[in-house]
UniProtKB/TrEMBL annotation, chains A, B:
<protein>
    <submittedName>
        <fullName>Pseudouridine synthase 3</fullName>
    </submittedName>
</protein>
<dbReference type="InterPro" id="IPR020103">
    <property type="entry name" value="PsdUridine_synth_cat_dom_sf"/>
</dbReference>
<comment type="similarity">
    <text>Belongs to the tRNA pseudouridine synthase TruA family.</text>
</comment>
<dbReference type="GO" id="GO:1990481">
    <property type="term" value="P:mRNA pseudouridine synthesis"/>
</dbReference>
<feature type="region of interest" description="Disordered">
    <location>
        <begin position="432"/>
        <end position="467"/>
    </location>
</feature>
<dbReference type="GO" id="GO:0005634">
    <property type="term" value="C:nucleus"/>
</dbReference>
<dbReference type="GO" id="GO:0031119">
    <property type="term" value="P:tRNA pseudouridine synthesis"/>
</dbReference>
<dbReference type="InterPro" id="IPR020097">
    <property type="entry name" value="PsdUridine_synth_TruA_a/b_dom"/>
</dbReference>
<keyword id="KW-0819">tRNA processing</keyword>
<dbReference type="InterPro" id="IPR020094">
    <property type="entry name" value="TruA/RsuA/RluB/E/F_N"/>
</dbReference>
<dbReference type="InterPro" id="IPR001406">
    <property type="entry name" value="PsdUridine_synth_TruA"/>
</dbReference>
<dbReference type="InterPro" id="IPR020095">
    <property type="entry name" value="PsdUridine_synth_TruA_C"/>
</dbReference>
<feature type="compositionally biased region" description="Polar residues">
    <location>
        <begin position="451"/>
        <end position="461"/>
    </location>
</feature>
<dbReference type="GO" id="GO:0003723">
    <property type="term" value="F:RNA binding"/>
</dbReference>
<dbReference type="InterPro" id="IPR041707">
    <property type="entry name" value="Pus3-like"/>
</dbReference>
<feature type="region of interest" description="Disordered">
    <location>
        <begin position="20"/>
        <end position="68"/>
    </location>
</feature>
<dbReference type="GO" id="GO:0009982">
    <property type="term" value="F:pseudouridine synthase activity"/>
</dbReference>
Length: 467, 467
């Protein structure tokens, strides 16, 4: 009996070994580079850690007590770019550590730029979902500073005689961008930073957010899509074009879209009609609901395939006549980029060389993607030359084209807003109350997770979640 | 004791399960689709397995004895396309099972199209290396057939009364393409097949092979590269532009290049000077040496970066004056495609729908690659708009540009051919003999791995390895 068991154990161990090496291989091939910065050994001369030796600095952050109270702090905005394809989203999550924010906070702690997240006065401009990338994610936060003189957003340490330090007012600030990029993973980069006044918030002071969604023409009618996109512009109730997040306190769905366009990625070849041309759906708004852009894109794709008329947008925005969202899938994640978060009056400070490093790394990574795309295109061309014919199935959607398309307005609907509110009121997460002027007010219930839910004063830059 | 062993077994099984799902997850994210063919349950009506039920056919191949001798065989050519990025090369290897050929033979065995590899009369046109793709890999092999009448390449079964089967001469042949594509992995596809005369060989009867290497312009001088490439044309000794494989019996390095060009991937935009334009180095030859194309490309890239003059090619081909290869790295693997293998007089038989399925799957996969490339390009554009400047480092080469470039002819050299021959002669793998006319003949030694090594009759289509 033991022999049989021992044999089984040997087989299992061999199998495990094989799988482990396969797993190692496949995780190595998926590696994404956004950095070609020099060796980590290159030391950073203006680092304020004058009191510690280099060796000590390389120890784990937890081992060495660091006296944050001896240093000034300053309130800054950091501008980040990241490739979202390998992450479970931007925001920290309970069930996974594989988020952009988790990596960011590791870097901030490791570089001793903050003491901990809770006291860092951290705000983020938007939350991007799993698979979604960003070129201009902005966060505001208090970081350790070398500036012992008063200045924009600077808080001097208490119990420190700043007059003795005043001579070092000529000290340059810590090179935040370089320090963080050295320890961040390759596919997350700090692009630049800006000093900001205390109280400035990435979340509440953002003037507008711009998303881009990239897609190939295929057999889509992009002219029709461009015309249809305009219908999104203006202030509308977008409940039928998002994933309602009532449980998190999002109770009103009016948002303002400043512009919504569909344009070729390469404008210089605008007269081309090639199905392999790329287009960009670019949308600028004050703030966005959860999955809003991807729902808007999904509907545009249906219009581009001529499965729906452009007018479907007007109907979906008419929440009086269409109070409940029809069931449809949102567009896939990987083509979406939070391209710009706009703030007035910030002086973005770049650090010499850093921009060049990020550019070089992006160019190498772009090379890999585009070369593979061309290998595939060569094969596509070869097949077409031999007579293979494209179906008119949308290439962004996996699987085959559905045989019988069911118009949106004939489909089953999702729960209404009222029904969802009732659901949470029953569970004590929300409470109804008679408000002023006899209107109904809904706010946090006793069992709510969040402290700040009210449907009475909707502010468009106070999103709990974005796409 | 048994309890401890049983416990260990349970632990190992749990660990295995965990790894399997991780592996599945990571292979799904890296999953390459080349097929959108219908469900595997769709049965294939003209399958000659009339004697067995469907249930039996779905059992593992090993369980059910199959009488191959009752069926005709036919000699065919199969044309394959595969994306090499997830494989350790085309040819079966001892230390890994992750090769295109391994998957191919699994499929051939599973579909009962062959009994075993050894008796299948298998030849392949070329061997592609790890990471290298193919659009026209051709193999020749004997497959099970339904054709009981005499025909091109058909061998009738012995001891079977074919006259009773003659009525089924109207039976169509097995749908080889469909049968294999149903069981092959997504990134390996059979495109079509051709009946061939017995004795026809994918290896020896190939008229020419064409490779393509895709690369972005970046800061390369592509005009100079195009002019330089012409110097490869003609019959030359390419020992300085390959990896010598003396141990495997490759002892002479003369090869004929029919054409070598550098052209834009999109000819319609030929007047563009954009650094993000893609180019193709396309090279057609009778046969190629191991890593030859990648070495040729590496030298072209040095010329394009103006680190070497175009004349370096002439010098490397001048083996009298430069008998030993300077040390240099070959170009990376992923941009290389074995694009065409040319055979005269074959009637490639396509199966309806299969071409369309492969095309649709390639388009979806192309969409992923090109969308990601455009996301990256959008970020690159944004950085350039903010003043970031490209270095002139070649984007195909990882890492930073070397500070001091060392000209090829000033570098240390690899071993000479003579030295390598001596090495193997010492070990008994090769033997020297005085040949006719007083010349030296080198052939298989007593301890050689291969039976067919001789340097006296070089045939250009008898490569043991190709790039």
């Amino acid at each position: 009996m033991s022999d049989v068991l021992i044999q089984r154990i040997k087989e299992l161990e061999a199998e495990l070994e094989k799988l482990r090496s396969q797993l190692k291989e496949s995780s190595e091939t998926g590696d994404v580079e956004m950095s070609s910065s020099p060796s980590l050994n290159e030391d950073c001369k203006s680092d304020g850690n004058t009191g510690s030796s280099k060796k000590e600095r390389k120890k784990s952050g937890k081992d060495r007590p660091f006296d944050f109270s001896a240093h000034p702090r300053r309130h800054v905005a950091l501008r980040l770019a990241y490739l979202g394809w390998a992450y479970q989203g931007f925001a920290v999550q309970e069930n996974t550590d594989n988020t952009v924010e988790a990596r960011l906070f590791e870097a901030l702690l490791k570089t001793r730029l903050i003491q901990d997240r809770q006291t860092s006065n951290y705000h983020r401009c938007g939350r991007t979902d799993k698979g979604v990338s960003a070129f201009s994610q902005v966060i505001t936060i208090d970081l350790r500073s070398t500036q012992f003189c008063a200045g924009l957003g600077i808080t001097l340490p208490e119990n420190v005689d700043v007059s003795t330090k005043a001579a070092s007012s000529a000290t340059s600030e810590l090179p935040y961008v370089k320090m963080l990029n050295r320890v961040l993973p390759q596919d997350i980069r700090v692009l630049d930073w800006a000093p900001v006044v205390e109280g400035f918030s990435a979340r509440f002071d953002c003037q507008s957010r711009t998303y881009r969604y990239y897609f190939p023409r295929g057999s889509l009618d992009v002219v029709l899509m461009a015309e249809a996109a305009k219908r999104y512009e203006g202030t509308h109730d977008f409940r039928n074009l998002c994933k309602m997040d009532v449980g998190n306190g999002v109770l009103q769905f009016e948002r303002t879209i400043l512009s919504a366009t569909v344009k070729p990625a390469q404008p210089q070849h605008a007269s081309s009609t090639d199905q392999y041309d790329l287009f960009i759906f670019e949308i600028k708004g004050l703030a966005f609901l959860y999955h809003q852009v991807r729902c808007m894109m999904a509907v545009l794709l249906l219009i581009g395939q001529k499965l729906e008329a452009a007018d479907i947008i007007n109907q979906l925005l008419d929440v009086e006549n269409n109070p409940r969202k029809p069931q449809y899938s949102m567009a896939v994640d990987y083509p979406l980029v939070l391209y710009n978060c706009h703030f007035e009056g910030l002086s973005w400070t770049q650090e010499s060389e850093e921009g060049g490093f990020v550019l070089a790394a992006l160019q190498q990574h772009w090379t890999q993607s585009t070369v593979k795309a061309h290998v595939l295109q060569g094969m596509i061309q070869g097949l077409e030359d031999r007579g293979a014919v494209s179906s008119n199935h949308c290439w962004l959607v996996e699987g085959s084209r559905q045989r019988n398309y069911r118009p949106l307005l004939e489909r089953p609907c999702c729960e209404s807003l009222e029904s969802r509110i009732n659901h949470f009121v029953k569970r004590g997460r929300l409470e109804r109350e008679e408000g002023e002027n006899g209107g109904e007010m809904i706010h946090r219930g006793k069992r709510s997770k969040h402290s700040n839910i009210s449907s009475e004063t909707p502010k468009q830059n106070m999103d709990s979640k974005e796409d």
